Amino acid sequence: xxxxxxxxxxxxxxxxxxxxxxxxxxxxxxxxxxxxxxxxxxxxxxxxxxxxxxxxxxxxxxxxxxxxxxxxxxxxxxxxxxxxxxxxxxxxxxxxxxxxxxxxxxxxxxxxxxxxxxxxxxxxxxxxxxxxxxxxxxxxxxxxxxxxxxxxxxxxxxxxxxxxxxxxxxxxxxxxxxxxxxxxxxxxxxxxxxxxxxxxxxxxxxxxxxxxxxxxxxxxxxxxxxxxxxxxxxxxxxxxxxxxxxxxxxxxxxxxxxxxxxxxxxxxxxxxxxxxxxxxxxxxxxxxxxxxxxxxxxxxxxxxxxxxxxxxxxxxxxxxxxxxxxxxxxxxxxxxxxxxxxxxxxxxxxxxxxxxxxxxxxxxxxxxxxxxxxxxxxxxxxxxxxxxxxxxxxxxxxxxxxxxxxxxxxxxxxxxxxxxxxxxxxxxxxxxxxxxxxxxxxxxxxxxxxxxxxxxxxxxxxxxxxxxxxxxxxxxxx
Length: 478
Ligand SMILES: [Zn+2]
Fold this sequence. Notes:
478 residues, alpha/beta, Rossmann fold, Isoleucyl-tRNA Synthetase, Domain 1, six-stranded parallel beta sheet, 15 helices, 46% helix, binds zinc ion
């Protein structure tokens, strides 16, 4: 069995789950479930990032200790993912002592290899992002992702990581197709350009931030929250029993705001800690953002879409489908509740749902055995192009392929042959219904990673004898 290790970012606990987190997590779940269908042994990791100043401040506001605060908030993410039927294998929390131990061990290696040194750092710091900003990242003198007051001038003594030392090696790896780990291709060129423009060393620790993991060789300092967070991908494989062989990760799925950390800093840290090139993560896939009705999603605009809001409107599988269809690959994807409704009604209620309803009514009571092989080889029956598209996070194209190949063709044939006008025993009627049943079952198998519950309901309709549905699969939404 091939091993496949896939991760989402661990989400910063100071936030509440929104469509941005949802899109990455659903995407990872779709890829993970596809790999399960083709017979891989999958390890799917998600979790929460729980250290840093921002968390300590939020906890203080609520009169809680940081740990109590994290213990209250972290389950919100876990629950949100369970509601969306995300089949993750492990939910990691960076306050787990076993994770903290691996972080310290890895940093000690970086120190022992001479890649940490003490220096004074002065610069603009975004409390929202928990990071120092470079001149090019700032817009109008502050962080573009957070309100201006979150950007503050800071000066402190830090331990620095010799990131610059690893730049030539990273360029070499990314430029070589055999070892390149950045996708899609637009992001690869973006990173190469930045690396070639010159890279400065970065702080690996903070002073005066108590809520963090202490630096093993200098307990007055705590590990910069980003170093701590990135190591989760590796630490999980080390402290969870039986997962060691899953390292290196096959796919880190991330949003573009954390691109630099995941494609430069993370690899440099691993190289510095003595990882060979074949032990570096195989691929980092960077997706873009959602725009909501042409605007950036923001709390102040009040246009943030929560996973619960989607589920209330479209159901779990409907929400997962809409996310897959609108997944922002190379560019930002403009979405909105009204457009989601149109897409849901067109594809799911009128097309797929209607086809299943028509065919089950026409073929009710018919023994399904002659129409399909019940021992239907799952592993071998996924379309190769479909799997390729899923692996490249081209979910919209993958679903489009399934609709065209199985669903649209069935609808066309039904309308041509009009079996409802033919006698029950007419061979033409039997043939067209058989064709449609086979196609519906193939569509269902392909759509399983995206809509696990609905596809199960569809398959149930065709077990032994064709049964009609108790209720529409996808009720139309006004
Ligand atoms: Zn920021």
